[in-house]
Hints:
The complex is a heterodimer of chains A (about 110) and B (about 110).
Chain A: E1 4-5, E2 10-14, E3 19-25, E4 30-38, E5 45-51, E6 56-59, E7 62-67, E8 72-77, E9 86-94, E10 100-102, E11 106-111
Parallel strand pairs in A: 2-11
Antiparallel strand pairs in A: 1-3, 3-8, 4-5, 4-9, 6-7, 7-8, 9-10, 9-11
Chain B: E1 4-7, E2 10-13, E3 18-25, E4 31-37, E5 44-50, E6 53-56, E7 64-70, E8 73-79, E9 87-94, E10 104-105, E11 109-113
Parallel strand pairs in B: 2-11
Antiparallel strand pairs in B: 1-3, 3-8, 4-5, 4-9, 5-6, 7-8, 9-10, 9-11
Amino acid sequence: DQQVKQNSPSLSVQEGRISILNCDYTNSMFDYFLWYKKYPAEGPTFLISISSIKDKNEDGRFTVFLNKSAKHLSLHIVPSQPGDSAVYFCAARSGSARQLTFGSGTQLTVLP
Amino acid sequence: ETGVTQTPRHLVMGMTNKKSLKCEQHLGHNAMYWYKQSAKKPLELMFVYSLEERVENNSVPSRFSPECPNSSHLFLHLHTLQPEDSALYLCASSPSRQGVNGYTFGSGTRLTVV
């Protein structure tokens, strides 16, 4: 059973507009959430994270929102740039499990 | 260069072959991981090594065998694989299993079993 779900396998956005990538989770013990970005032929790279005690974390063009009651988080990218085209993985950590559980990824394509 | 180096980048092997994947990290991290990425599926944790303790995902077949001789090196030994084992195998490291710093991934080995 997937504990971290990214229900949209792909998303296309026009350059300059906002990209919103969504992630849902089922395990209420998750206490830390991360987003990774992956280009073809490369490993995933860390993008941004948020602790469960917060509901928002911002870093430049990237903002992650956490809604614990809905067990939902989202990554906002604004403005979107063609170089943002990549696969984005949502990941979550449970303090007891001490390792990351990943979603299946969303392919973002930013159109020029 | 991410600090985590995986070799080879690509590997094609027959079902009767024996091969090994290698991972090396120069970040001073204490935990290393093997993940499998199949198309349209979540990254699947296969093995964790932390301070020489091994943690396994019980669903990983015995045809995959990890080895961690020290905190900087991690191997994945492969034998009698099946075509469904074709995937991208990613190595990652982290400062510790309990840290919140996330993982540093290597570029992966693209494995094709024929």
